[in-house]
Amino acid sequence: MKSIVESIAHRLSSPSRRRSKKFSLPRDEPIVALDNNPPDTSVIEGHGVNYQSPSEEDIPLLNLDLLSIKPADRQWFTDVNIAVRDLSKGSETQNNYGHIRRIVSNAAHILDKEVKHHEWARKLDPLIIWVSCMVYSVSRQLCRAAEKPCDQLDVIDDFLKSYGCPLSIRRQVAFIAVRVTVEIELYDVGPMKVFSDEYPAYRVIQDAHLLGEMGAIGIVRFYTFYGSFPPERWDLIRKISKLVAVYLSQYVQAMRTETGRKMAEERLKWMKEEFLRQWEREADTSNV
After folding, report:
1. CA within 13 Å, CB half, 215
2. According to a count of CB atoms within 10 Å of the terminal CB, is the N or C end of the chain lower?
3. Burial class of residue 203 (count of CB atoms within 10 Å of its CB; 0-12, 13-18, 19+)
4. What range does the domain containing 90 cover?
């Protein structure tokens, strides 16, 4: 994988082949390590609890049969699948392979429901959706490797081309994947509405991405990646109600599929009625 990163980073040092907007992407801030010592799990041995985080190799690759990958596409899809997992090894990026699997899983749930009720969903090529979910963060990681502004469309196209992905697939994936961000969806509502109307696959992919920031795992991810640095982590403890009630409520409104909206509503309901209610009970110190 290192050779791929280096080769693409080298290509990015020359002028872009297309005249498109350049993006200067910031590096990830290092996560503060509060304790490097593994926890003492002797008291819970034999109770089926594993506190050791799995390595990327322990996380299974996406299942070709469950995703109904055609024989003609299996080799390059597998190569991309492995490359995406390898790219996240040893990194502190928010988009590790476990997260990518969850995004693809979200997309599979959404597509499975939408095809039963909507003609537009039945016309989609699932392969475009799976690959877009897998690589939408790749361009940012490779741009960081280049350490300079670069064209994300070129990055994704070059990355997929390196593993034999057909031109018709990789161009569609690159065009959609560069637009999969929370910021674009929440703050460029008008343009993205037009884009999702023209490219319906984006509806499924973006909804799957937004769902990844909600629910139990979403809360943990938020604190891990946005609340790891003082004084932000203490400020977040005070502002958790606003985070859930205001900010994450916008995710529900941003959903572009009926299934995605229902899933988002369920996760937001749990966050408000279960997590937040318990949080507020524990934070109540009015008795002293």
Report:
1. 14
2. C
3. buried
4. 1-13+67-179
Cα separation of 79 and 165, whole Å? 9
CA 281, 226, 98, 262 torsion-angle sign:
positive
pLDDT recorded at residue 35: 40
Q: How many domains does the chain have?
A: 1
pTM: 0.75
Q: Which residues of 132-141 are buried (b: 16+ CB within 10 A; e: fewer)?
A: bbbbbbbbbb
- Does some domain include residue 57? no
> Per the domain annotation, does 108 fall within a domain?
yes
Report the first-to-last Cα separation within the chain, whole angstroms.
Answer: 57
